[in-house]
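A protein record pairs a chain with a discrete description of its three-dimensional fold. The following entry can be read in just this way.
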Amino acid sequence: MPHNGCPHQCSFCNQKSITGQAYQPTAEDVRKTLRQARLDLGERAKNAEIAFFGGSFTAIDREYMISLLDAAREFEGVFSGIRISTRPDAIDAEILALLKEYGVAAIELGAQSMDDHVLALNERGHSAEDVRTASRLIKSFGFSLGLQMMTGLYGSDFDKDTRTAEEFIALSPDTVRIYPTVVMKGTALEKYFLNGIYKPYTLGESVELCAELIRKFEDNKINIIRVGLHYSDSLIENGYCENYHPAFKELCESKLFYNSFLEKTKLLESRNIDITINRKSLSKLYGQRRSNLRAFEEMGYRVNIIFDDSLEKYEMRIGVSV
């Protein structure tokens, strides 16, 4: 639902370019999509959610919103529930009671930053306190709370982005999404970028920062359901994508293992190393195109990999090979 319900255009936002879509779905579109999804997914539909994303769902025309929810409610029991995204300042008790009535189970807030100066610079139109208030209200009604953040916004830096993540953790959301900022054509951010007022993080800087944010959220048992923008041809054609990568989360996870290796081996004299990990983490340890293993070898290490599936996803033990 690109831009629908948004009171203005934020500095970074061009939903049409990001998604390649401008069309607003009708209630019949919802029914058609869900009928097809039921056929395609079969029994797996029980684990799938109906999601309304792209705009501010609770700020759209009320009659239109209810027509979409009515269509979705016809599939109650087929799918696991309904998930919506909206603005922090478009939440109140009345709208939450309505969403509860229609079977909405999860609400994600596009918070983006918890720094009021950054929010103002990027024309968000809400405050960090709005995020706190909406989050607490959503949880009090029994909804699953999701928070979305953007790293590298105009006026932000590593410290401000890290503090945003820490404030998110304090609000105890069930899920988070992390979106590194990509400059899109047709936005205010494009003008700032071309004029030299705004300098985005490099890909390497984004990976370094987001790897640490992943660790923070994982350490606090908060489910990360997305890191980086979904790929679309429109995104590539309409964005300045030097700092974009379609497998961004994979890069971050590999960086976590790389950094952990350096930290755990810095006091070891031996270059013959045993690395113990959960077998599901093997590709993360290897890195894209085995980049981590090549780096370890170039440092002079001879690595032996051992599996212990009792270890957590990002946990790694280091020992000296005998």
Notes: The CA atoms of residues 267 and 281 lie 24 Å apart. The mean pLDDT is 93.
